[in-house]
């Protein structure tokens, strides 16, 4: 028995090493650009539709059926769906359902496959295999493209003419839909085709065991996310020490490990020729491939990321000063993830996590992305988020969006991710990327940074451009970095601040706050010396019962601040704090509802192509795609309430004036009367105070609760006070060095245990 176990472990370890050695080849196929699907396994499931009325009376009037999107053309003009339709009474077909493929343009059919009969009790699946496309009734093939290529079918295309094509591994055309036009069918209806042709003799039924193709993109799953081979099993749910060692190898290159690597360490490795941008991107892509099926932090990977990395490597090798230091910015060649509400003019989608914007084409990069590209940063991909920046429903689940599913905290593997820039924080925390960008209206940088044990900088509103960003409120929204260290966040901040003519009023007003030599000069280890920091005990330090760790930890941190030269002004109060923290009493909720509709409609009107052109269109899309958008569980009350608004009317103006008064008489009075440089608060408890006034803040890792959930310490200040906040935050970070990475072992064990469900 012992020899059998040893032999089994050795077999799985060898298998894993083989898979690991070929992971980059696998990535090249699996992470395909829009318009293509590359087949990576023998039978690859593209879409799957279960029976709608299993167990119900067969005489019941059938519904209109169901559908699942599986491919879009590069510009988003055409979309390919698997459709399932029940048989209408009198249409024949012995009560069966019918499935077929349909290519649509603006919701209208332009091509359809034959109607394939499917038992009303079986799942209908669309499979890409070595014979082309096949529709299965359970395990029986009912229709196929009959594209028997001599050279192995490998790629499915949907081109911008609306034609669907199959190519072999050498790129030769093996089949195209336009050769067999079939439009305007209505499978299962009177007068429409009845049963599909007989089962082809060469059909290969899907076996009745765990499928060896990739799963269909169901609700909450990204299209074309590759499924990994399950990790080798180990006794009692633990990974063997040999396998952990194998996993560690994957994040190293010539003695350089990307685990917890800072921007400055990466740049040093570049200079010493220990690392290239290409290799760095490959290492991060490998981590995304391994961890993302569990953490769901990344919606899309940029198919051009390696090309961008090659360009950075070429530039670095061509222009080097005599002292060996490049003349480029600190972000040159550094991969960065962009939150999915920030536009990128490339092969990536910008969707705010919603299928309603899948395939939309932006006219240009967002202002902050333009600056990142100019700095030489590599746009690695799009980070997941709480759909529509957590502004869809009053009962929304943070970290969930239709396109990527539920983001998970890498420390506790739960949905405790907080606010909306969740993927940006998760990915950085789990070492899936070096740095990331998030956005904040009210807590969406500070809170996910706190919950995921990373650093977040929420800049003064206007310091960073919102042009090309799907925002909620132009008064409150700001774009900022989420990174593992304060210094990394400052490197990013230096590159993205500044005037933008497309967000002229806000960026011109805030431009005066930008220091001449940037923000890196304020990374001082003695930055706490002489700083006056206020403590507002009530309500921010009223921890729930059983949170003794929080209370004691912050008292220890206060002692550290004092020991490092800070002057703490304790037991302060903010006037009207209860009104400030109440969304309805302050006017914040009313104002955001009105502003969101205006901002979103403006953004949508600027798109070159888009399935939706207004908030009303988004609402209608959700209603028409309830399964994809998880309408039964989540709803869209905020979207509906926003649609009912009529712009910035007198009532909204009064609400804005009320927030300005509350900020002026509250936080600003506190800061000025006590001559404070910053206010310190735990976690994200004061984000609303800072949000309604457009004030900056920085969150730094502060500790871990008993279950391992991280929490942060937040330093907030008046508009333009970033230099002081950076000095305070950096000095605190250097004095405490609290951050520690999450356990990869826990993540991999979780991935192995749920692999069959992904």
TrEMBL record:
Pfam families for the chain: Amidase
Sequence segments annotated as region (Disordered): 175-222
Residue stretches making up the Amidase domain: 280-685
Name this protein carries in UniProt: Amidase domain-containing protein
Alphabetic keyword roster: Signal
Protein origin, superkingdom: Eukaryota
Signal peptide range: 1-30
PANTHER family per the UniProt record, alphabetical: AMIDASE, OS04G0183300 PROTEIN
InterPro entries: Amidase_dom (IPR023631), AS_sf (IPR036928), Bulb-type_lectin_dom_sf (IPR036426)
